[in-house]
Amino acid sequence: MTKKRVLTGVTTTGIPHLGNYVGAIRPAIRASQNENTESFLFLADYHGIIKCHDPETIHQSTQAVAATWLACGLDPERTTFYRQSDIPEILELNWILTCITAKGLMNRAHAYKAAVQDNLDKDQEDQDHQIEMGLYSYPILMSADILMFNAHDVPVGRDQIQHVEMARDIAGRFNHRFKELFVLPEAKIEEHVETLVGLDGRKMSKSYGNTIPLFETEKKLQKSVNKIITNLKEPGEPKEPGESPLFEIYKAFATEQETQEFTRMLAEGLAWGEAKKILGAKLNEELAPKRERYNELTANPAQIEDILQAGAARARKEARILLDKVRDAVGIRALK
Ligand code: ADP
Ligand code: TRP
C-alpha cells in the first residue's frame, strides 16, 4: 500500500504563535506519527521574503520555526524536514507551473485581493500600487511546494484553504494538458479549531504583531492572555462564547467536555479575569514541556542546521525524480 503523504509549511516571518500551532503544526505532527503516513514538513523561507524584507527577521525566524517544529515532536528520522530554499527543484517546478497557471486564477487569490482593496480604500489611482509579483504569484509557489512531493493531505488553518484549492486546480490543469503526474491535494482542517483572533481583533498573524507567541515564559504567556479583548461585562453577568476571542483559543486546546464546562461557567457569570487564568493554565499545561525543549534547541543552532541539511538531501532526491518526469512531459529533455 502506498503511504498517504502529508505536507505543510510555516512561513519564516516571525515567532510561531498559538494560531500556527493549532492550525498547522499540531495536526501535522500528529499525522506524521501515524504509521500509514509519510510526511514532509518545512520552513517556507521563500514565502517569508514575500511579506518581510528585513533579513534579520527572516534569519531569526528560520531558527525559531525550525526549533518549534522539533520541540513540538517532529521526529527527523520519520519525517522529511527541510528548508524550502534548500530545494532548488521547487523553484524549477514553480516556473513550469507559472507557465500553465491562468492569470485570472491569481487575480482571485485572497491575499492579492486584500492588497488591492487596501489601495482602493486609500483612493490610490493604481490599484496595484506597491504590490510585488511575489505576492501575486504566491499561490503558485505554494502549489510547487505541495505538488513537488505529491502530497495528498495538507494540514493548514482555514485561511489557507483557498491556496490548497488553487494547487489542486493547477495540478489538474497540468495532468490534463501534459501527463497525469500530480496527485490532487486536499486541505485538512481541524474541525474544532477556528482561525484564532489576535490581540488587536484581527486574525492572529506573525505579520500583524498581534500574536501570543508559543514559547514565551509562563509569566509572559499569562500576560499576553490577559491582553485578549473582552467586553465590559461584570463578574456574575452571563457571558456568551462569541463575546471574546479567548473562547476559541480555549476550545482549540481543550477536550469537548472541558469546552462545555467552560461554556457553562461563562453562562453562569465567570469573571473575564478568572476565565483568563483558566485559559493561561490550560495553555501552559500543553506547552510547558515543549517550551523546555525549545529553549534547549535554540541554544544550539548548528545542531538544527545539521538536521535541516540531512532533511534537504532526502527531499532533493525525492524531488528530482518527479521533476525529471515533469520536464520530460513538457518537452525539456536531452537531444539524442
Ligand atoms: P502567519 O499568518 O502567522 O504568518 P503562516 O502564514 O506562517 O502564519 O501560517 C502557517 C500555518 O498556520 C498555516 O497553515 C496557517 O493557516 C496557520 N495559521 C496562521 N495563523 C492562524 C490563526 N490565526 N489561526 C489558525 N491557524 C493559523
Ligand atoms: N502559505 C502558507 C502560509 O502562509 C505557508 C506555506 C507555504 C504552506 N507553502 C506551503 C502551507 C505548502 C502548506 C503547504 O500559511
UniProtKB/TrEMBL annotation:
E.C. number: 6.1.1.2
EC class (word): ligase
Binding-site residues, L-tryptophan: 145
CDD domains named among the record's database cross-references: TrpRS_core (cd00806)
'HIGH' region (motif): residue ranges: 12-20
UniProt cross-references to SUPFAM superfamilies, sorted A to Z: Nucleotidylyl transferase
InterPro entries linked to this entry: aa-tRNA-synth_Ic, Rossmann-like_a/b/a_fold, Trp-tRNA-ligase, Trp-tRNA-ligase_bac-type, Trp-tRNA_synthetase
GO terms of molecular function: ATP binding; tryptophan-tRNA ligase activity
A GO biological process held by the record: tryptophanyl-tRNA aminoacylation
Keyword list, A-Z: Aminoacyl-tRNA synthetase, ATP-binding, Cytoplasm, Ligase, Nucleotide-binding, Protein biosynthesis
One Gene Ontology cellular component annotation held by this UniProt entry: cytosol
Residue span of motif 'KMSKS' region: 203-207
Pfam family, any one: tRNA-synt_1b
Subcellular location: Cytoplasm
Catalysis: reaction(s): tRNA(Trp) + L-tryptophan + ATP = L-tryptophyl-tRNA(Trp) + AMP + diphosphate + H(+)
Residues at which ATP binds: 11-13, 19-20, 157-159, 196, 203-207
Main location per the UniProt record: cytoplasm
Known function: Catalyzes the attachment of tryptophan to tRNA(Trp).
Record text on subunit structure and interactions: Homodimer.
Family: Belongs to the class-I aminoacyl-tRNA synthetase family.
PANTHER family noted in UniProt: TRYPTOPHAN--TRNA LIGASE, MITOCHONDRIAL
Protein known as: Tryptophan--tRNA ligase
Organism field: Neisseria wadsworthii 9715
Gene that encodes it: trpS
